[in-house]
């Protein structure tokens, strides 16, 4: 049954990746009055779980956490903006919309591939069981 464990853990990981990307995309145009308060892009970090001789149930993908981007926060001079600081600057998010779109496409295709693996394994198991009935 480890094929199902691997495929489902990978699907869960890609779903987290899609949700994180959606959150980043939703905040691409947000602004703040301070650099510290500006939205920073987030990316999930994954690790591979490998089966060892003692525990064959630990296979698949594990989420190690979600990291926050340390890229520079853009600042724009907009003295009339209600959130502008005393110098007239507002601070935007450091989300790169093009990178996030590529990330979303990649995560969607990876999810789709793992769903296909899950479906194919299920079909093969059912056909194997049907062989025993004849």
From TrEMBL:
The keyword Translocase does not apply. Residues 87-131 form the Flagellar basal-body/hook protein C-terminal domain. GO terms for biological process: bacterial-type flagellum-dependent swarming motility. This is Flagellar basal-body rod protein FlgC. PROSITE patterns: FLAGELLA_BB_ROD. Keywords: Bacterial flagellum, Cell projection, Cilium, Flagellum. The keyword NAD does not apply. InterPro entries: Flag_bb_rod_N, Flagellar_basal_body_rod_CS, Flg_bb/hook_C_dom, FlgC. It comes from Paraperlucidibaca baekdonensis. Belongs to the flagella basal body rod proteins family. It comes from the Bacteria. Residues 5-31 form the Flagellar basal body rod protein N-terminal domain. It is found in: Bacterial flagellum basal body. The basal body constitutes a major portion of the flagellar organelle and consists of four rings (L,P,S, and M) mounted on a central rod. The rod consists of about 26 subunits of FlgG in the distal portion, and FlgB, FlgC and FlgF are thought to build up the proximal portion of the rod with about 6 subunits each.
């Amino acid at each position: 049954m480890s094929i199902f464990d691997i495929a489902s853990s990978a699907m869960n990981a890609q779903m987290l990746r899609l949700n994180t990307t959606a959150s980043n995309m939703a905040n691409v145009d947000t602004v703040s009055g301070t650099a510290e308060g500006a939205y920073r892009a987030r990316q999930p970090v994954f690790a591979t779980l490998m089966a060892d001789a003692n525990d064959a149930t630990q296979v698949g993908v594990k989420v190690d956490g979600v990291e926050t981007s340390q890229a520079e926060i853009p600042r724009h001079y907009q003295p009339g903006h209600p959130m502008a600081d005393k110098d007239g600057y507002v601070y935007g998010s450091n989300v790169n919309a093009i990178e996030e779109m590529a990330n979303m496409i990649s995560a969607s295709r990876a999810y789709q591939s793992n769903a296909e693996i899950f479906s194919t394994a299920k079909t093969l198991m059912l056909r194997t069981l049907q062989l025993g009935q004849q």
